[in-house]
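Encode chain A's predicted structure.
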Amino acid sequence: MTPERFRKTSRLYIALLVLILLPVAGFSTTNANAATIVLADCIDFINEAPPRVSCGFVSVPRNHDKTDSRDRIELPVLIARSTRSLSPNTERAVLIPGGGGPGASMGFGYLYSSGEYLQPYQSLRQAGYDIVIIDQRGAGFATPRLNCTETIDVFKSLATQNRTLAQEIREYHHAIAACRKRLNTLYGDLSPFDTRQSALDFLTIMEGLPYRRWSTIATSYATVLAQAMLIEQPNAFETVVLDSPVPLDYQQPITKEVTHKAIVKTINRCRQTQQCNSRYPALASQFNDILIRARTRPYGIKIQTYEPDGGGKYKTLIIDDNAILAIFFTAIYNNDSIAMLPLVIDKLHKGRKQALKTFTEEFWYQSTDLDYADGLNMTIHCKERQILEDKYLADHPTFLNTLSADSRQALAAQPELCKAWHVKPDNKLLPTKDFNTRTLVLAGSLDPVISQADINNTTDNFSDATIAIVQGAGHSVWFQSECAREQVMRFIDDSDTTLTLDSCKYSLPAFK
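Encoded structure for chain A:
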């Protein structure tokens, strides 16, 4: 996937389409909550219209608990049918629920090269599976889309000036309140935009499709969606793959210390690699020196920014120690950037501050991405995840004593931000008994955000779970490791009960 944007689907074309179902669909017309699909051009979704692939928009209830509700929302769906010539009408399907975040989309609307978007699913399609990709409500091509331009404007303003954490919190508080007021005017109550309602979206659509056997591959926040589906319908899937899993009932707050630890994990891998360690023998101390320097004398990094109209502008961002951590943390989600991290630290320590340019541009891009539904993220965080963070703090009374003043200040501000968002805490996702579905939990050893505690707390809720840690991989193993994809296909297909994921030494590019 390239970072360049492809044009967004024009919503005007929907009015020109006739209401017909996708060729593989078979929705009930007697169910008041039944989903309907309007066909769309796959060129608008993935920049091509390959054979045996259909795209469209699914209409589902805004609130599944109101059985007679006529208030509906739309989700994008892509169905890539099996390429096995002997199985033209497969009964087996794999659901790919989207997306990350929460708030990130499945990536519809980017400029892909031919075959790029569907490449990760080729082995499954060749094995006789149809692939059903559906985005989460409120994000990406879904309507309504809950994004906050107000917070983006604040980031753009603050990133180019010296600022204090208190100033950042104050400005974001105003932006969040303004966004909430605007979204409330446009869309009313936001409380139905939560994990459980998204899970019911997927189950509703699955019930309307003619597949008797379902599996799912879920990544990052989508693993929460998959687990929520199992709470609602324990037998929804024959097999489940949770890639970079987020537990339903555990959430350690993300702090400066957590991000620092994630970056150090990659630094330690360099130290354990002979060639990297010989080239950068003092990497850990260099990293600490950079943070100390940035705290007292922030760096000025000149970057070229991405603009929605396709152009770019040059800006100088003021990078203090908090921003350094955020930039590196964002970078090491990507395995190519993991490989570059030692070189960037070494050059920056030697005074070549423009070595940070590429990482900073990616950080800017991620922070100003209009596709990211930060309004959806706020709703789910304040409704579901904040409860788990509060529980973590209550269960670990000495935790706050281990944190910096900045981290304590940021944690103290979160409840106030949630008050400005006006969504009541209400977590209905806690499992009451173990999930029995055969499950593979997949994670990368260099994942910056998924800890061993996350993995353990996820698998504690499963009676039949296999854990596979892929050495050298970061976040989202499924999409970055061909070896892992092959083993996952065998796990789902059950044609080979002996997993060899331990042999998947992810081909992490050599440290630069």
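The CA atoms of residues 156 and 368 lie 8 Å apart.
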